[in-house]
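Figure caption, in words: inputs first, then the predicted bound structure.
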Amino acid sequence: MMIGKELNDAINAQVGAEFGASLQYVTIATHFDGEGLKKLAALFYKQAEEEREHAMKFIKYVVDTGGEVRIPAVAAPKATFTSAEEAVKLSLDWELEVTAQINKLYDIARAKNDYAGQNFLNWFVEEQVEEVNSMDNLLKVVRRVGEKNIVMMEAYLAHGN
Ligand SMILES: [Fe+2]
Ligand SMILES: [Fe+2]
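Bound structure (fe (ii) ion present):
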């Protein structure tokens, strides 16, 4: 089964966005690591791994459907942050943007009556609900704790939230 060119191109672009998210999360993780906030760092290192897995999932789909993998250039991530809130807000904004991108991929698959494509993308639709929700929640807690007491996030995260 061949993937359509339009979806193939859009997925290649999405692979760039997923790798870009991975690099951004690595950078955020190193920021927290440098601040001595090891649990926050671990959370973002793990997120970075997940984004890489997302990219690989898209790549595998393109290969499995006889398409062409063309990984685009990935922009350098934002490197410095003045607060935990800024870093987590950036992450939430990124997740919202990715959600919109996934919806656009879905639009293409639907317009082409590409049922395999829609079925494949359903996983990402569901995943984004989870990603946006968890980042939104993290931002709420970070804001509630406040920058001055940000070390309390370590205790919060240690309790498995
Ligand atoms: Fe992702
Ligand atoms: Fe994500």
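The chain has one domain: 5-158.
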